[in-house]
Amino acid sequence: MSDCWLRVSISRQQLELLEGERVLQCYPISTARNGPGEQEGSGCTPRGRHCIRARIGAGQPLNAVFRGRRFTGETYSQALARTYPERDWILTRILWLSGCEPGFNRLGTVDSMRRYIYIHGTPDTEPMGVALSHGCIRMRNADVLDLFDRVTTGTAVVIDP
Fold this sequence. Notes:
This protein has 161 residues and is mainly beta. The protein has two helices and ten strands. An eight-stranded mixed barrel has the order 1-2-3-9-8-7-4-10. The longest helix has 8 residues, at 141-148. The two termini are 26 Å apart. Residues 4-160 form the L,D-TPase catalytic domain. Pfam families: YkuD (PF03734).
């Protein structure tokens, strides 16, 4: 799928997988509660041209828990959520984004990769279509698993307001 790319719409809270201009799949998402923005520490979802810098979690189970981009050995459950109520859950797979526009979403205090901006799974109890994340792009676990298997490192990602 060399012509595939991703379009993220913050206003519509959806992510599209495209081949050229043809939409192959559309997924509901949740972007940042603080809206769009590139500044480090803002808790905002960065805009503009990005690419997938790394694909993390291949072969791990659905609902695998990640901390610091490493599988913890845990599988998300309601009991685990009650034990760690403060965690911002990163589950199933991680697509780590890198900005492609120096001064806007790459380098300095606006660098998406250094901000650890991901497309990742979240507990299925979390609503989609509502901006609630801390900057990342959250997806249903089954959806992020499907997407992960359809993209490669280097896949283009465009995030629109």
